[in-house]
Design a protein that fits this description.
This protein is an alpha+beta fold. The chain has one domain. The protein contains two helices and nine strands. A seven-stranded mixed sheet has the order 5-8-2-3-4-1-9, with no helix packed on it. The chain has a two-stranded antiparallel ribbon with strand order 6-7. β6 and β7 form a beta hairpin. The longest helix is centred in the N-terminal third of the chain and has 14 residues. The protein is globular. The chain starts with a helix and ends with a strand. 16% of the residues are buried. Its main location: membrane. It is found in: Cell inner membrane. This is Paraquat-inducible protein B.
Length: 120
């Protein structure tokens, strides 16, 4: 009976997960697995699971999991970028991340076929 309950919990957990997204970038500054969130329009839509170097050691591969139902945000032209404090000619941006830490912003694309892997 215990094994059956355990199997049901595993099935329920994995069947209610959102899509995994792989992002390739030049560095992982401010990105932490299990902590860094993915947001769209200031709403949490996922979380970074891990950040590792690519096989050729020249880039960082970020594995992230979107919440269930958020696959509608992923399209060929979706854009991801890291939001962190910055000072430039245009002014100061990302001040909210001083306390909360960096996060990844997701700008949904137009309705087009979804992609499992996106470079940013």
């Amino acid at each position: 009976m215990t094994a059956l309950i355990g199997a049901w919990i595993l099935f329920y957990h994995y069947s209610h997960q959102g899509p995994e997204v792989t992002l390739i970038t030049t560095n992982a500054e401010g990105i932490e697995g299990g902590k860094t969130t993915i947001k769209s329009r200031s709403v949490d839509v996922g979380v970074v699971e891990s950040a590792t170097l690519t096989d050729d050691l020249t880039h960082v591969e970020i594995k992230a999991r979107l919440h269930a139902g958020m696959e509608k945000l992923l399209h060929n032209d979706s854009v991801f970028w890291v939001v962190k404090p910055q000072v430039g000619r245009e002014g100061i941006s990302g001040l909210g991340t001083l306390l909360s830490g960096a996060y990844i912003e997701l700008q949904p694309g137009a309705k087009a076929p979804s992609l499992p892997s996106i470079s940013c």
